[in-house]
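Hi R.,

Here's the input for the zinc ion complex you asked about:
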Amino acid sequence: MRTLISGGTVVTPTGTDAADVMVDGERIVALAAPGSEVASTFAEGAERIDATGRLVIPGAVDVHTHMEMPFGGTQSADTFETGTRAAAWGGTTTIVDFAIQRKGDPLRSGLDAWHAKADGNCAIDYGFHMIVSDVNDQSCKEMDVLVGEGVTSFKLFMAYPGVFYSTDGDILRAMQQARASGATVMMHAENGIAIDVLVSQALSRGETAPRFHGITRPDLLEAEATRRAIALAKVAGAPVYIVHLSTTGALEAVAEARSAGQNAFAETCPQYLFLSSDDLAREGFEGAKYVCSPPLRAAEHHANLWRGLRTDDLSVVSTDHCPFCFKEQKELGLGDFSKIPNGIPGVEHRVDLTYQGVVAGEISLSRWVEVNATTPARMFGLYPRKGVLAPGSDADIVLYDPAARQTISSATHHMSVDYSAYEGKAITGRVDTVLSRGRLVIDGGRYVGEKGHGRFVPRKGNEYLV
Ligand code: URP
Ligand code: ZN
Ligand code: ZN
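And here is the predicted structure with zinc ion in place:
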């Protein structure tokens, strides 16, 4: 089937132009000036999508999601089916989720378990990173094998002792292996050993409310861990990608390493750009809705994170989508903040929320596309199949209405979770139409996608390594 998307404004990292987009089957075949002869010829017998008044952008790539993730005696509320559908509603056409190695198990069984959850259930394409919670000879060998299967990035944790935590020695070994295998280590950089001391001291003082989650995870312990991760990566000669960076101190560490020429990269997430420790301190148990790690920070960090996005010290915006219902799941932590499952729902609203940065003059339209689609695709080996509107690329295309107004609410969102962290937030802009590999998934605000359309996408290495 051929489709012509005409009359829209195409936005790429290099600029903004009126252009028609020609799709044949699953791929983009050409972009041409509106009304050009090639577009008119192509239009004969093709389906037409009128993009007048819309921005035409590459489908967004969310490289940090947790669907059906076991955590703290429960599991995240979105399945691959519901979570990828919600992602599509928000203009995301590829996710990279985290398969988990359980301590004592091989990486392979974790990866198999995640394939069993996802395969045949997704509305959009998906890939996997691998969480390594047990660094040993066997898992290092398996890292090399998994790279060959398109799992080219491995997350390690400096937090959560006894669960996912790795020692500095483990991290160094995994980074050396990553260097040898052409992989990227993604780091959850918080000093979990020190945090656990602060948590038990707080609980013994009777400080049990959600806001103590933030107080016991001070920003200095994120900045310290980020510096340590970067130092270990330098010793190993390996790239490092800091996930969910939330604070100015950690950003400074990344910026220094980048200025010194190191392969150090970082992402932030909408919750660190729009929410704050004031949300965590909401009345009663309401703050539990905002418990995630690293925790939400004081609002004064927001401006620095936006600056980091402009300077490319923050290269990517991902969601760290990890939804737990307020009822029954977040409530596991009533009377003990340390038992509140960590995570915030967000896979549906990243494109919209970061568009508010365009509206506010924090980032340009091109940068908006870059941090949501092009750079994550390049960083995680999906480019040029994903993240770009170019001949030969998958026809993952979003038509975005830049003038629409909407109010975010759990009453209208599509994530399988009973609250929104942005309830009542009025925003400008809305996803109108979404194609995934040439097939309509969202059609003028109607879901027309299909469970099982999404395919596993094997990934190459990080394009930014020098
Ligand atoms: O609170 C969070 N971020 N939950 C998801 C797990 C992680 O560390 O990314
Ligand atoms: Zn993490
Ligand atoms: Zn995460």
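One thing worth noting: The chain has two domains: 2-57+392-415+423-447, 59-379.

Cheers,
M.
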